[in-house]
Known about the structure:
InterPro entries: FAD/NAD-bd_sf, FAD/NAD-binding_dom, NADH-Q_oxidoreductase. It comes from Streptomyces ambofaciens. The chain is of the alpha/beta class and 398 residues long. The protein folds into 2 domains: 2-114 and 241-325 and 385-397, 3-Layer(bba) Sandwich (FAD/NAD(P)-binding domain); 117-237, FAD/NAD(P)-binding domain, CATH 3.50.50. Helix content is 28%, strand content 27%. The protein has a 7-stranded mixed beta sheet with strand order 6-5-4-3-2-7-19. Strands 9-16-10-11-12 form a 5-stranded parallel beta sheet. α1 (16-28) links the parallel β2 (7-12) and β3 (34-40). The relative contact order is 0.18.
Amino acid sequence: MTGIRKHRIVVLGAGYAGAAAAGRLVKRLHREDVALTLVNDQPDFVERVRNHQLAVGQDLKHRPFDAIFAGSGVELKIAKVTRVDVDRKAVTVTGTAGEEELGYDTLVYALGSRWNDHGVQGAVEHAHEVASRTGALRLRARLASLAPGRKVLVVGGGLTGVEAVTEIAETRPDLDVALAARGELGDWLSRKGAAHLRKVFGRLGVTAYEHTVIAGVEADQVKTVDGEAIAADVTVWTTGFATHPIAEASGLQVTEGGQIVVDAMMRSVSHPDVYAVGDAGYAMGANDKPLRMSCATGTPMAWQAADAIVSELTGRKQPKVPLRYFNQCISLGRGDGLIQFVTADDTSVERVLTGRMAARYKELICKGAAWNVGNPGATVLARGRRVVRGRAAVEQAA
Length: 398
């Protein structure tokens, strides 16, 4: 007797991109045709874009994955991914039950990124990070222990650094808070955007060390490449993100930075049964400009990949939705914000929205992103689309 095995889709990582991909796939594919497994090393969703809020003592809504995907047909595995074998189409994970191997027909790689110390001496030993919930909670405890007048230095003048330093300064006005940036403060913003950022820094009493490159981190100070010492009881490192090394070790084609090179459908250019979304994928946007690592990038990448997979399996036309940017949403504490409008390729234009209205706008975006993850079954079709391609390849004896 011959039966047809379900098409196995494994999604690695349940951040914004991975969770969005899993939710979209389960909405659009028939449960009888597909077995979808979501692997994540934590049991609940981490609102990474709010880690700076967590670090200053704010409590975030708890979103357990077993509740999010209850009744959806997604098999959830709380485990750490330790190996991806693209030749054998297998993933090795380690969880409470020990080591396990998961076979796949289609793999969605969304393991994301972690903080990047750039090899700076002492950063790992002495600096704090807010790229992970663990790091944010560690910083939270350290900040809570600081007496008034102590010095906090945030290293990195990008979005993460700006949001972290303003949140800390607003929450703890009794601390001496500063930011060190390689270039000018807000040099990626428009003239109006940069001017508002400086205004907020002045109001909050944040010191900006511009054109400052940090060469070393110690317990109570940092050293610049020029030999200057900047006192810091707490150093917060926000100088970008690094991808997980598993992708490069798997044999997938990756960039020098370890991102998986993908086509317009988010499909690996070296292994077409693998899709990479979020920070793990290296995709091109408008004007052939690489998409930046961000939630604003990861979620649309996930939608594109999910739609491409559905089209491939159901015999429908491949989607052609160009990935582009509209704005950059920056929180500057709880009562202020900056919405920097941009061109399709993420170049700043003069138009901005600032102040309390911008803060509300940013809050709405954050809530929307979390709602999308937390409600994968909100519009699930009772009977999703049937798989019509590749079924002969998965026939097996019942």
